[in-house]
Amino acid sequence: MPKRLWPAWCVSLLITGLILAVVVGLRRSGGLQRLEFFAYDFFTRHQSPAMATDPRIVLVGIDEKDIHATELGLDYPVPDQTMARMLENIEAQNPRVVGIDIYRDIPVPDGGHRRLLDRVLLSNDNIICSFRFPDSLNKDGVKPPPVLANQPERIAFNDFTTDTDGSIRRGLLYLRGGTNALFSLASQLALVYLEGEGIALEPDATDAGALRLGKALLRPLKSNDGPYVKVDDAGYQFLMDFRGPRQFPTVSGSQLLRGTLANDIFSNKIVIMGMTARSVQDDKVTPLSQSHRGLQVHAQVINQLLRVALNGEPQRAFWTDWQQDEWTVLWCLVGGVVGYAVRSPWRSSILLCVALLILTGAAWRAFDMRWWIPLATPAVACVAAAVSVNWYISYQEKAQRQMIMQLFSKQVSREVAEAIWTQRNEFLDGGRPRTQKLTATVLYTDLKGYSSLSEALDPSTLMDWLNEYMGTMSEVAISHRGVIDKFIGDSVMALFGVPVARKTDKAIKEDAVNAVRCALAMETALHRLNTVWELRRLPTCRMRVGIYTGSLVAGSLGSTERMEYTVIGDTVNTASRLESFDKKYEEPDLTDRCCRILIGGSTWDFVKDRFETRRVGEIALAGKSQSVTVYRVVKEVSQRQG
């Protein structure tokens, strides 16, 4: 039994499903995390800051000029004596809290004025010093100042949590160290400031996993929240929104030591002291910058905690895994539909771009409403489905066109071939011509006296002679929009009205007219051939033509490797019987004609106003139980198309 192909829509749906499975698998395994990070960073950079500046936070940045101003004693690392002077100048203005983002685990310089710095630290309990956890670069970490060893509330870690691409997007509220919570520098500074506002961090009464901070309900980031996949969620993490000011009020170490600042610049503020000199390696990668300084990132975290606690700004929320998968399914189907329905590369590209713009707009709108929903994952699914399905459809069309051309390229005119291709959806079924019942006109020809003629010629000459005849008749049939169905010995069978079904009387009439006109043209062509053959001393011949219009069944026979398009039915048999009817029958005044053309009554009904005909009579044809009205065609009387 011939192999049948699945319908194109079914295969396209299967391809879309496979693309969806691969993309969802990639997302759930973390393969698309970096693309989602890229989208998150893009949205973050282009969002509007919640506030232009934050006067509650002041940065003291020791830059290159400070380091080079040797008269100030601001060499790097900053000496204990200089740091003590800076802290005294800050404390003179009564800041609410001061954070030192500079390590002080050992004296600087060795054996220097450590007692002076220790005295400043002990006499001001609003100063928070930083330490660093052990990591791959520093296996021992960096310990806090020894003088504060018994005051854990005065020390905090300044480590940041980075994602797989090395960028900082998550903030740390605290980590567990044994039975105690070790707070980050930023969160500790924010909590001390909020204490002055009467706000403390406390468990939420309704949600055991959440914390209450003023107007905010803080829920910890989980390992698979949003686009994250199996991320280390140790401690209490939250997603940073980076909606703080792009620049915080900053003063230099030189300004602080020289006393050129306003008398209230630090009053009741959060002050963070750190290094901003580029020669000191403290660059951090964030969505906002590839070279954020550490104290600037701390300031962003502090600003976010103050905003959520005092203003009640919500945290960014996420969809569940299933919601993300459903969102991906939707856009994968959109891509599949575009790839299936739009065959033009330009139109499909434009539609795909429109779809991606809509997807990006939806993700941006959600981001603006504090939701981080997938963008890269559905975009990849949409594009992959569109390209894959479109490639399959193009491949299938190429194969179909090749198959059609193999079947009809030498049997039909260019116009008919294009009509077949244009209407291929009606013509093809499962990658092969659809078996269909239709109304068509069959033309059958045969040579008179061929048997005796073939005996008179040697085989080689006979074959050349016959090929010349067949080639000429084929060209005539094809030029009249006919389809050469087959050659049988010296016979030619041509079809008019296949393979694309003709559904109106006007179209069926056109086929019948074309068939009769083709027969008359064959007569003219044969007359020319006879003249040429006479000159070449080759035999001349006469021809009989039978034409009948009616229902028949058209389809393909054979396998995909060897397939033939043909028709079967009583209409075919009747055309053959008309051609062979009474081979000696001739009308006295038409004996000089080299072609006899007989048509059935069904054909005559369509062409009677276009051709002069003579009624032969009601004739019982061989193999038919009912008689057929037969007419002989004399000539065409009108050149108008039916």
How many DSSP E strands?
27
* Alpha plus pi helix count: 18
Main sheet characteristics: 8 strands, mixed
Q: Helical residue percent?
A: 40-55%
Distance between the amino and carboxyl termini: 42 Å
Backbone CA Rg: 45 Å
Q: What's the mean pLDDT score?
A: 87
Basic shape:
rod-shaped
Q: Could you tell me the strand content as a percent range?
A: 15-25%
Structural classification: alpha/beta
Low-confidence stretches: none
Overview in brief:
By secondary structure, the protein is of the alpha/beta class.
Explain this structure:
With 642 residues, the chain is α/β, with parallel strands linked by helices. The protein contains 18 helices and 27 strands. The strands form 7 sheets. Strands 20, 21, 22, 23, 24, 25, 26 and 27 form an 8-stranded mixed sheet that branches. A 6-stranded parallel sheet has the order 4-3-2-13-1-12. The longest helix has 33 residues, at 376-408. The chain is rod-shaped.
